[in-house]
Amino acid sequence: MFNLSSIPEDELLSSAELRLYRHQIDEAIADAISDDQALHRINVYEVLKAPRPGQLITQLLDTRLVRHNASRWESFDVSPAVLRWARERLPNYGLAVEVLHLNQTPRHQGRHVRISRSLHQEPGEDWEQLRPLLVTFGHDGKGHSLTRRTK
């Protein structure tokens, strides 16, 4: 769930994205025989109803096919959900992230994408720098839009 109460009511949101940090998986790179085996699919869903044990009612917002040979940030468009949450000013049920390992190797399923703090933090890993971010873009209606001047 995301607390959107800090967004002013007169703010006009234009878009939103979820940013997730993903770690390189060294063992998976070494085990990959072909390029197809070096892929993961990351799906981001809006949770539409309060979760019940073993059941989420979701709607797909964005998906991405990624190679697991680099550590980097991935951005996912979650605008439809966040714009509705901000407009309706009602509680939301959050987002669900699914990571599918396309080569179906269970031993590599673990720490590719971090969406929660780990009890056993790796040395040199700073959760505050790597935690998922919900980034919103908007305009408060104050000031002037930038315009291009002609000569």
From TrEMBL:
GO terms for cellular component: extracellular space. GO terms for molecular function: cytokine activity; growth factor activity. It is found in: Secreted. The keyword Chloroplast does not apply. Keywords: Disulfide bond, Growth factor, Secreted. InterPro entries: TGF-b_propeptide (IPR001111), TGF-beta-rel (IPR015615). It comes from the Eukaryota. Residues 2-137 form the TGF-beta propeptide domain. Belongs to the TGF-beta family. This is Bone morphogenetic protein 4. It comes from Astatotilapia cf. stappersii BSM-2014.
